[in-house]
Design a protein that fits this description.
264 residues, alpha/beta, Rossmann fold, ProC C-terminal domain-like fold, 2 domains, 51% helix
Length: 264
């Protein structure tokens, strides 16, 4: 397909997920760069014809779209190295948590348009939920950013002041959901299933529950009511979970995660 060359600066878990999601959705792998200090760790991407390098400057010089997927503590040093090579001709996209558009802009020369995106690792299979925020970005660049991340799942535009919350709910949320599924699997084993069968049942059940909400647009309680019959096993189990603090512990976990992001 006709596309601008994309450089993903930072080939960790998220950067790799973005690259894998793009090529699964018909982006040309030969027009994607992924950088990492230990470039040998990207050999599986190289085998898929993605260009891999430890040289960030090389990647930036050869790309039109720059996606920064680094840890927050590394970004300022990397931008210092790259500032003179990033021009107004580039579209700069940050997927870095806890690093604002203003902070990013302050590290670059004037007139660089930046879009901030918060996808999750489900980007690797085209099922990410990506929240987008921008400051002074053109409509064209926002559209380009959406095109990239809609190839990886769903997108939604939010105010940047909600980006920390988006990080917790959408990115950390993958881990919360997986921990819930793991608990379902463990419970399934206790009641008689082998691990493989319990994993299949639990995973498909959670997938089905999500699709009910996405496709029907109902509140979760509407769907819960459909399976909670009087004196039935579902309501008995739900009530016991609530007695043990199921919902409150999840809410407290979400609040603790955002407090951790914001405490610095």
């Amino acid at each position: 397909m006709n596309q601008d060359t994309i450089a993903i600066i930072g080939g960790g878990n998220l950067g790799r997920s973005i690259a894998q999601g793009l090529i699964k959705n018909q982006f040309n792998p030969e027009q994607i760069y992924v950088t990492r200090t230990k470039v040998a760790l990207l050999d599986d991407l190289k085998a898929q014809h993605i260009k891999t390098t430890s040289n960030n400057i090389e990647a930036v010089k050869n790309a039109k779209i720059l996606i920064f997927a680094l840890k927050p503590y590394r970004i300022e040093a990397v931008l210092k190295e790259l500032t003179s090579h990033i021009t107004p001709e580039h579209l700069v996209i940050s997927v870095i948590s806890d690093f604002s558009l203003e902070q990013f802009s302050n590290c670059l020369t004037p007139n660089i348009q930046i879009v901030r995106a918060m996808p999750n690792t489900a980007a690797a299979i085209g099922e990410s939920m990506t929240c987008l925020a921008s400051k002074n970005a053109s409509a064209e660049n926002i559209s380009k950013t959406k095109l990239i991340f809609e190839a990886l799942g769903e997108t939604i535009e939010i105010d940047e002041n909600l980006m920390d919350a988006a990080t917790v709910l959408g990115a950390c949320g993958i881990a919360y959901a997986l921990r819930f599924i793991r608990a379902m699997i463990q419970g399934g084993i206790e009641i008689g299933f082998d691990a493989k069968t319990a994993t299949k049942i639990a995973s498909q059940t959670v997938k089905g529950a999500s699709e009910l909400l996405l496709q029907n647009g109902n509140h979760p309680e509407e769907e819960i009511d459909k399976v909670t019959t009087p004196k039935g096993c579902t309501i008995a189990g739900l009530n016991e979970m609530e007695h043990q603090g199921f919902s409150s512990s999840l809410i407290k976990g979400i609040k603790t995660s955002i407090e951790t992001i914001q405490k610095d």
